# Entry
Amino acid sequence: MPHGNGLDVVHALRADPTTREIPIVLISPRGGEDATIGALGAGADDYLVKPFSGREFRARVRTHLELARARREGAESRLKDVFLGLASHELRTPLTGLKLNVQLCQRELAAQGSPLAARLAGLHRSIDRMTRLVNDMLSVSAITEGKLTIHTTRCDLGQICRHAANELSQVSHRALVLDLPDTPVPVVADEERLGQVVANLLSNAIKYSAPDRPVTLTLRAEGHEEGVVRVHDAGPGIPVDALPHIFDRFYRVLNIGVQSGSYVGLGLGLFLAKAIVERHGAASGSRAPSARAARSRLPSRWAA
# Structure
């Protein structure tokens, strides 16, 4: 090279923030251990000695491009984790204060017979929705740090389903079809966490199905071994090739448009639902081929 050698180019590329992450394969006629160590020490990702085959060169380039992509995605994922942790903690306190003040104003206006009380009820539901989102973000942060806690108590799984369905129905202004047993379904589990699971499954079904189409929540005890919670909608379903990824963190299926409710999503709901269910020692999944039904299976040891 007329104005330096390959090592100078490597140093320059690594010193520039715009080219620092580009994979570098240094090609040279110089062989031997010292030349290889010198190139790698300067910042090259690989060192290839002439002569070489085209197949080997292409294979090495593909490998380093894939490694660079994996590093980039890993860094982006870590940044998202940091953001989720900071944002959720910072939002929780003002949301709690806002909710309490809205409740007080709503009670005072209702006592005076003011029609504004109904408007505040709608605001209260919006705050509840924001609170659920913040709680989901906090839970995801706890999962990634290995600190998700489960506090089990004796509770009724049917009541958990009814409560989650009522909340989602009020927020979305959609009537949900409930197919639940008339008698209690006693379990020993974390009531709040299971409520998150059911709410996230319902929220997904509502978001990706037309407002005039039914969303059905079903609870069944199958034999003496497990109970099954199912959420079924009449949306377009999930492509078969996306099924292995729908429970991945931050994953969102491409080309599936939101048909109802908020268009904002972080790709965390199903990841969180699966983690909570598995933390209880159970299993969750989606049925193929249409994948319009999500389910969570509860083992018999939950039975009270």
